[in-house]
Amino acid sequence: MVTMVPVLERWVVVECPFWAVEPGPFHPAVSRTPTPGEVGALAWALIGRVDDVAEAVDAAEAVDAFLAYDDDHFSVPGGLRITSDGVVVEPGCCVGLEEWRDWVDVLAGRVIWLGHSPDVQVEQLGPVVRVWCDEDLTNPGFTGPHVDLQRDALPGLLEDVRRDLLGFLDALGEWARVTVPAHADRLVEAVDRRLVISPPLDL
């Protein structure tokens, strides 16, 4: 069974001083039903990377810095994790979760860039989309670990990703109304806009 889930890269450079952050893996999944602690960790992964957050004295100022950040320069490391029969494909470096809709281009036969270290590669094979975990780990001619996606299954997988992100948005709103009540609605709107969650997929 193939699964595709959105993940964020955990912000580990500075511990979050503003709210509780649940420990977890380097790439925590963006679940549609996260616990408050998981929401706190994902919120910090999104917010903690903004430079001006380092000057904040409380949670409200940290969120203010995030809201003031220029949308055109927003990027948060992460992407889509693909698993099948024990093979796990993690997003590469320098790819952001905000680029998750690039996978729609795969349906049109395009090859998308999925980052480096690991150097994830997409190969178009007719009805199959083969995703290689890391080009650096393969033998010449690509004979390393990979996941085969049936092209006609990809729309459903991407709709599942969107449902995960929509569920996270709902949980983020509940968390924010407790943690930063005056900023809750604007935080949800900003995350929705920057990760391009709400608009229907063009499949």
Describe this structure in words.
This protein has one domain (1-196). Helices cover 32% and strands 16% of the residues. It has helices spanning 36-47, 59-68, 103-107, 154-179, 184-195, and strands at 2-8, 78-84, 87-89, 121-125, 128-132, 146-150.
What's the layout of helices and strands?
Blueprint: E1 2-8, H1 36-47, H2 59-68, E2 78-84, E3 87-89, H3 103-107, E4 121-125, E5 128-132, E6 146-150, H4 154-179, H5 184-195
Antiparallel strand pairs: 1-2, 2-3, 4-5, 5-6
Helix pairs in contact: 1-4, 4-5
Features of the shown structure:
6 strands, 203 residues, single chain, elongated, three-stranded antiparallel sheet, alpha+beta, SUKH-4 immunity protein of toxin-antitoxin system, 5 helices
Classification by helices and strands: alpha+beta
* Arrangement of strands in the largest sheet: 1-2-3
Largest β sheet strand count, sense and barrel closure: 3 strands, antiparallel
User: Could you list the spans in which at least 5 consecutive residues all have pLDDT below 50?
Assistant: none
Beta-strand residue fraction = 15-25%
Count of alpha/pi helices: 5
Count structural domains: 1
Please tell me the overall pLDDT: 93
The share of residues in helices is 25-40%
Rg, alpha carbons? 17 Å
Number of strands: 6
Question: What's the order of the H and E elements?
Answer: EHHEEHEEEHH
Q: In angstroms, what separates the terminal alpha carbons?
A: 22 Å
